[in-house]
Amino acid sequence: MALMITDECINCDVCEPECPNGAISPGEEIYVIDPELCTECVGHYDEPQCQQVCPVDCIPLDPERPENRDQLMEKYHRITAA
């Protein structure tokens, strides 16, 4: 699954630079994650880095975007091949 940022986000700016795919960006009110770029850090790290640094624990899995590890790895290869 791709990750998402909930409205508990405090805009602390720590997640954006941690994303190896550039999937996190400032939204109108809170940071947002582009699900087309989010691989949950598969291919880069063992765990999603944004979740590791988030001080308010507001980055859960997006239930609207179910993806298994193989699909996330395919997305990683597609993103990094460019």
UniProtKB/TrEMBL annotation:
Domain 4Fe-4S ferredoxin-type residue range list: 1-29, 31-64
Highest taxon listed in the record's lineage: Bacteria
InterPro entries (alphabetical): 4Fe4S_Fe-S-bd, 4Fe4S_Fe_S_CS, PSI_iron-sulfur_center, YfhL-like
Record has Metal-binding as a keyword: yes
Keyword Transferase: no
Pfam families per record: Fer4_7
Gene3D superfamilies in the record: 3.30.70.20
Coiled-coil parts of chain: none
The entry's keywords: 4Fe-4S, Iron, Iron-sulfur, Metal-binding
Record-linked NCBIfam families: di_4Fe-4S_YfhL
Protein name (database record): YfhL family 4Fe-4S dicluster ferredoxin
Source species: Halomonas koreensis
